[in-house]
Amino acid sequence: MDCNINRREFMGTAAGAAAGMVLPEAVTAAGIGRRDIRLGVIGTGNRGQHLLRVMLGHKGLQVPAVCDIIPGKAKHTAGFVAKAVGKPS
After folding, report:
1. Element (H or E) spanning 37, and its range?
2. Band (75; pLDDT cuts 50, 70, 90)
3. What confidence category does residue 22 fall into, taking pLDDT thresholds of 50, 70 and 90?
4. Is the pTM here over 0.85, yes or no?
5. Which residues make beta-bridge pairs with 41?
6. Rounded distance between C-alpha atoms, residue 36 and residue 62, angstroms
7. What is the distance between the alpha carbons of residues 24 and 35, in angstroms, rounded to a whole number?
8. CB under 8 Å, gap of 24 or more: what pairs does 42-51 form?
9. How far apart (Å, rounded) are the C-alpha atoms in residues 30 and 26?
């Protein structure tokens, strides 16, 4: 595997990544293209719950469905999603 990268390639990649993180927030703050995000979660183990908690910090997120092979995990996750968005579980 070739891991050689020059400064110009590094800076271009870093700038693209930074723009990808900042631009959506700037566009949303300006009210351009504002849409709610609907997220379905498949797999509600430790990693799935962690990612979901992070996403629940964003305004406009809706979680209409959660799914897990273990019904108790799915029910637990659905409950904390409902609590986080202020809906009865």
Report:
1. strand 37-42
2. very high
3. low
4. no
5. 66
6. 7
7. 11
8. 42/67, 42/68, 43/67, 43/68, 44/68, 44/73, 44/74, 44/76, 44/77, 45/73, 48/77, 49/77, 49/80
9. 6
**How far, in Å, are 16, 40, 50 from residue 68 at the CA level?**
35, 11, 15
DSSP secondary structure letter of residue 43: -
What tokens does 30 get?
Answer: 């300006």
Scanning 1-89, the segments in alpha helix (DSSP H) are: 7-29, 46-55, 71-85
pLDDT in tens, 44-74: 888 888 888 888 887 778 888 889 999 899 9
Q: Which amino acid is at 43?
A: G
Judged by DSSP in three states, 42 sits in strand
The percentage of the chain sitting over the pLDDT mark of 70, rounded to a whole number, equals 64
Q: Is the pLDDT of residue 13 over 80?
A: no
CB neighbours of residue 79 within 10 Å: 13
